[in-house]
Design brief:
By secondary structure, the protein is mostly helical. The protein contains ten helices and two strands. The chain has helices at 9-14, 18-37, 43-49, 54-58, 65-68, 75-97, 99-121, 134-150, 156-176, 182-199; strands spanning 52-53, 129-130.
C-alpha cells in the first residue's frame, strides 16, 4: 500500500504572519470607515479623523494623533501601496522577530516617525497634515536591513549593498516629492533599525528567508 502523507497544518499556521495580516485588516477597515463618513482626500476631514497636525498636537495636547495618524490613508492609491509594502516587509520580519517583537517594532516605529515629522515641521510656517502607515513600514525596512546584515546566507555583502541602494532610492523619492512626509520615512527607518539591533543583541544568527 502507498505510504500515507499527512499535512502538518500546525507548521503551516505557525508560519502565517498573523500580526501583519491583522494590521492590514485594521488599516483597510479604518479606511472604509472613513470613506463611509466622508472623503479620505478631504484634509479637514482627515484632521477630524485623527491625522497628525502640529497645532493640535502641540497646542491642543492631542498626542493620540501620533498613533492614529499611521492608521489613516489619503485615498485608495495611498492605502494600496502601503498595504502591499506592509505585507512584503511584514512577512519577512515577523517570522524572524516573532509576533510580539514585530508588533512592538511596527507600533513604536510609527510613533517615532510621527515624532520625527512633528519636530521637523515645527520650524515651518505652514503646518502640515500627515497620515499613513509608511513611517511604521519604513521602520520594518530598517529592521530588515539589520536582519540581512546579521543573516548568514553566503552572499551577505551583495544583499546588503543591493538593499542599501534600494532604501536610498526610496528615501530619496520622498525628499524630491513635496507631498511625501520624508522626515517620517527617515525617522521610522532609523528608529526601526536601532530597535531591531537592540532586539537582536546576543543572537548569534538571525536568518532571513525569502520565497
Amino acid at each position: 500500500m502507498p505510504e500515507e502523507r499527512y499535512t502538518d497544518y500546525s507548521a503551516i499556521l505557525k508560519n502565517v504572519p498573523w500580526v501583519t495580516l491583522i494590521l492590514i485588516v485594521i488599516n483597510v477597515g479604518v479606511f472604509f470607515f472613513c470613506e463611509a463618513k466622508g472623503s479620505s482626500l478631504d484634509t479637514d476631514y482627515m484632521i477630524k479623523m485623527g491625522a497628525a497636525y502640529e497645532p493640535l498636537i502641540i497646542d491642543g495636547h492631542e498626542y493620540y494623533r501620533l498613533i492614529t495618524h499611521f492608521f489613516l490613508h489619503f485615498g485608495w492609491d495611498h492605502l494600496f501601496n502601503n498595504m502591499i509594502s506592509l505585507f512584503v516587509l511584514g512577512y519577512a520580519t515577523e517570522l524572524v522577530l516573532g509576533r510580539v517583537r514585530f508588533f512592538a517594532l511596527y507600533f513604536l516605529s510609527g510613533v517615532a516617525a510621527g515624532v520625527a515629522s512633528l519636530i521637523y515641521n515645527l520650524s515651518s510656517s505652514d503646518p502640515s497634515v500627515s497620515a499613513g502607515a509608511s513611517g511604521a513600514i519604513f521602520g520594518l525596512s530598517g529592521a530588515l536591513l539589520i536582519l540581512v546584515i546579521r543573516g548568514n546566507r553566503g552572499r551577505r555583502g551583495t544583499e546588503v549593498v543591493r538593499y542599501l541602494i534600494y532604501m536610498a532610492l526610496s528615501l530619496y523619492s520622498g525628499f524630491v516629492d513635496p507631498s511625501i512626509d520624508h522626515m517620517a520615512h527617515l525617522g521610522g527607518f532609523v528608529f526601526g533599525a536601532l530597535l531591531c539591533l537592540l532586539m537582536t543583541l546576543g543572537k548569534k544568527r538571525m536568518k532571513v528567508t525569502y520565497s
